[in-house]
Amino acid sequence: MEIACLVWAHVLLNLVYKFVDKSITSHGVPPFQIPRMCFVEASLAIEHVTSEFDEARAFLLEEVIGGDEGHFRKYLNNVSAAPVSFTNEDDEEQAEFLAFSQHVQYFKTKKMAFVADYQGGNSILSDPQIVTDSALGYIFAEGNVPSSHQSFKTHHQCNRFCKFFKYQLTMTFGNHKGP
């Protein structure tokens, strides 16, 4: 399941960057930086066995996250739409951007899915969870917490990224209109 989460996380985060890039092209550059992050590259390796009595083992291989990525940190978990609060300005900006990315993903998937459990280094993320509408069934790992999806629109708090890109996101959340 972990590799499925990584594949979907890659796609959903790229969806956000395409949305942002298209919006910037047509409506201008925001007065703040857009953090550029990605998920760790990974592959599935299956052991070659020479005997019909041996069972092949499978391994998930991930790229090494180097020391230049800084310390490991969790930006958002899979049970809350609120980003972790940081004292470091860069970490805080990245956490806010990733919360915004959930908003875009929720909107672009017609309220069906978003990436949760954002964690990793300065720019490389790892071990994501995909949170989906319960109508989709059990299609991702155990980190797919149904209550997180159900409460997203009431617990997500729009931040400066959401507000800047609001002209593109016309979803209604709670009592306020916003991205």
From TrEMBL:
Residues 1-172 form the Alpha-type protein kinase domain. GO terms for molecular function: ATP binding; protein serine/threonine kinase activity. InterPro entries: a-kinase_dom, Kinase-like_dom_sf. Keywords: Kinase, Serine/threonine-protein kinase, Signal, Transferase. PROSITE patterns: ALPHA_KINASE. Residues 1-18 form the signal peptide. This is MHCK/EF2 kinase.
